[in-house]
Amino acid sequence: MDDELRERVEREAEKHALLNAVKHDSDADVGAIMGPLMGENPEFRQHGGEIPGLIGPVVAEVNQLSAGEKRDRLEELAPEELAEMEAEDEEDDSLLPDLPNVEDYDEVRMRAAPNPNGPWHLGHARMPAVIGTYKDMYDGSFIVRFDDTDPETKRPDLSAYDAILEDIDYLGFDPDDVIRASDRVETYYDHARELIEMGGAYTCSCSGEEFSNLKNNAKPCPHRDKDPETTLEEFEDMVAGEYTSGEMVLRVKTDIEHKNPALRDWVAFRMIDTPHPRPEAEDYRAWPMLDFQSGVDDHLTGVTHIIRGIDLQDSAKRQRFVYDYFGWDYPEVIHWGHVQVDEYDVKMSTSSIKELIDAGELDGWDDPRVPTIKSLRRRGIRGQAIVDAMVGLGTSTSNVDLSMSSIYANNRDLVDDETDRYFLVRDGREFAVEGGPDVAHPPLHPSFEERGTRDIPVGDSVLLESGDVPAEGERVWLKGFGAVRREDDTLVATGDDLDVVREGDVAVIHWAPADGVSVRMRTMDGDVLGVAEPDFGDVPVGELVQFERVGFVRVDTTDHDETLVYFAHK
To answer: pLDDT class for 494, splitting at 50, 70, 90?
Structure first.
C-alpha cells in the first residue's frame, strides 16, 4: 500500500469513526466501521488484511476526543453527512399508521388480551408496545383483559397474571383497566341465554367426528332446529355441570352452507371437567370459547379497534354473527403478521420454554438464553428499547423479522450517557509492573469529565487479556496508566506521551490489578470469568455499567467471593 492510499484510508477511517461515535454518542468501534468503510471504498478491499491494523490507531485517536470535539471534527470533515444524520434523529420515530375511522369514535379504546399461561416471551411485547403508543397518539384507553376461560388446554398459571402486568409496567405503560375473563362467566351465560331466546344458538350432543362430517358436507346438525325452550333447558344443565367433557356443547347458528366451513355453526360453550386454578372460578364447568367470550367483552368494554394476528381472520367473521344477532357494531380490525426474533436457539413459545425449565435445561424465565421479557430485563435492557423496536415494525400483514441488534442499538442510545466505565479482564495473563504511577485514574465516562475519575491501584502485578498481550519488546498503552514495554513477564513503564498512540505505534488496551474483584459474567453462551478493577466492587446491585471494550452489563448479585453480572450487549 503506497503512502497516498494509506492517507486516504486513514482519512476515510476518521470520518467513519466519527460518524459511528457521534451517532451512538460513545466510543467508535473498529468492527462497526469496517463495513461502511469498505462499502464506500471498494478499492480498499484488496488491502483488507492491512486495513484493521491501519485504522485501529485512527479509531483510538478519535476516542480520545470529547463528545463536542468529535462533532466539531465531523462537521469539518463531512458536514453534509452530519446534517443528514442529525435530521434523521429529529424525525418522528413513530412508524405506526393512523388507525382507521378514528373520527367515528368519541374515544379510541384498545385491548391487549393475553392468555396467562406463563410469563411473556419477547413476541408478546409487540401488542402492548403498539397499543400503548396508539393510546398516547390518540389520548385513548388501554385495556388489559386476561382471556383465561380455558382451564385445560391453555391452563392459566396463577403467577402469570402479575408477571404480565409487571412486564407491561416495565415496557412503560399503565393500563386503564384490568379484567379477568374468568371473573365474568355469569355475564357470558346471560348473553348465551339471550342468544338462545333469539333462536341464534342450540345445544348439540354430536361427537366431534359426527359434526365435522356434517359441517364439511354442509349438512345441518339434527339438533339444529330444536326449540329455544329445550335448548335453554339443556344449556342450564350445562351451567349446572350436569354433563361431562365432550358430552354437550352450545353452538352459534350461522350459515350451514357458508363457503368457509370454519364459520359453520361454531362452538360457543363447551364442558370442561378440569377445575380452573383460580378459586373464584373453580366451580364452573361450562366455559365459553374464546370467540364468544372475546366478542362479548370487546363490545361491553367499548373496544373500538382490535389488533390481532393475520391467522385469526376467521375470529372476526365468527364474532360478526353474534354481533348481528345482538345488533352491535363490530370494532375496527387491524391484522398483522407474526414476529420472528433472531439470535436465540430457544423457540419463542411459552409452552416450549416452560417444558425446558421444568426439565432443568433452563434456569428459569429470566435465563439469558430465553427470549422472554424477564430475561431482557435482568440483562439490563430498558423497556423503551423493546417498545421502540416493536413500534418500528409497524402493523404489516406480512411476517416480520426483529433483529436483536435493533433492541441493543436502542438500549445503547438510552443508557450510554449514564453508565460509568470499568475494566474487566477475561482469561487474564499476569504481568509484574515496573515504574509508572502507583494509581491509575481513568475517567468514569469519557464524554463527561465532570463525573471525575476512578482510582485503580496498580499493585505488584496486573492482568491483560490474552489477545492484548504484546510481543516481547513491544509497547502497549494501558488506559489510564500510560505506555509500557513488555520485558519477559514484566511491563516496564516507558514514560511516552499520548503521541505514540496518535502516531499509530501503540495499541490502547484495558487491564485490571491482579487482586481485583472476581466477576462471573452470565451470557447467552454461558458464564465467563474475569477480574475487574477494585472500584467495581462498590457498584450497587441493579446498576448498569459498561466494561470497556467488553460491553454493557447489569450487576445482579454480590458477595465476598464473586460479583455476578448479566451481559446486555456491546
So the answer is: very high
Q: What DSSP line would sit under 503-528, residue for residue?
A: TTSSEEE--EETTSEEEEEEETTEEE
Helices (DSSP H) in 207-365: which residue ranges? 208-216, 228-239, 290-300, 313-326, 350-358
pTM: 0.82
Question: Is residue 305 domain-shared with residue 426, that is, in the same domain?
Answer: no
Helix, strand counts (H, E) of the chain: 17, 27
Give CA–CA dist 433/517, Å, rounded.
19
Strand partners, 512: 463
312 and 294 in one domain? yes
445 and 377, same domain (yes or no)? no
Mean pLDDT of the chain: 93
Write phi, then psi, for 491 (nearest 5 degrees).
-105, 115
Please report whether residue 409 resides in a domain. Answer: yes
Same-domain status, 462 and 316: no
Same domain (yes/no): 257, 123? yes
Cβ contact 491:444 at 8 Å:
no
**pLDDT recorded at residue 90:** 55
pLDDT of residue 42: 78
Cα 538 off chain centre by:
29
In this structure, the answer to whether residues 146 and 289 fall within a common structural domain is: yes
Same domain, 282 and 400: no
Full residue range of the structural domain in which residue 366 is found: 350-416
